[in-house]
Amino acid sequence: MLMFMRLIILLLFIALINTKAFAASMKEVGMKGKSSDVSKTINIKMFDNYFEPKIIEVKKGQTVKFIIENRGKLVHEFNIATMEMHKKHEPEMKKMMKMGILLPTKINKNKMMQMSMKDKSMSHSHANSVLLEPKQKAELIWKFNSNIELYGGCNVPGHLEAGMVSRFKFN
Q1: CB atoms within 10 A of CB 26
Q2: DSSP label at residue 33
Q3: pLDDT per residue over 108-133, tens digit each?
Q4: How far is 165 from 160, CA to CA, in rounded Å?
Q5: Residue 69's beta-bridge partner residues?
Q6: 77 pairs with which residues across the strands?
Q7: Which of 66, 93, 103, 150 is least enclosed by beta carbons within 10 angstroms?
Q8: Which residues of the chain have pLDDT under 50?
Q9: 55, exposed or middle or buried, with CB in 10 Å at 0-12, 13-18, 19+?
Q10: Dihedral sign, Cα of residue 171, residue 26, residue 127, residue 105
Q11: Are 154 and 164 within 8 A, CB to CB?
C-alpha cells in the first residue's frame, strides 16, 4: 500500500512539473506594446486559409507593429500565442460561431456587444489578437518578452487546422 501511495505521489508530481514546463503565461508571450517603442513594422496578409509571411522574424524585447490585412473572402483572426494557447482559445471562437457573432463573412458586432454583457469572453478584446472581416485592415503593436515558441494563428474554427498559421523566428 505504501509503495502504491508513493507511486501516485510521484505521478502527480511529474504531471505538475510537465504542466508548468509547457504552459506559458501571457507575460511570457509578450504584452501590448507602445507605438513610441516600435522598432519594426511587419505586414501580415490573411488569405483563405494561409498567412503571408509564413515565418515572422522578431527579437526578444522588440516592439513590433503588425499591419494586418484580410485579403480573403472569410472572417479571419491574427492571434499571437503558443500552440497550447491557440488550442485553449478554440472553444471561445466556437462559442462565438454558435451564438451567431462570428459568421463566415461577417462579425455581428451588435450581438457581440450584447453577449459580452453576459459573457466577457464574447467581446474578443485581446491585446494579442485582431479579428477582421474580408477587406478590413488593423494594427496590432506587440512587445515580445521572451523567445518561447510562438505562432500567429487564425482560431476561426477549422482555419488553424487548415494551415492558417505562421511561425515566429527569434533572431
Answers
A1: 15
A2: P
A3: 999 888 888 887 777 777 899 999 99
A4: 6
A5: 45, 137
A6: 131
A7: 103
A8: 7, 10-23
A9: exposed
A10: positive
A11: yes
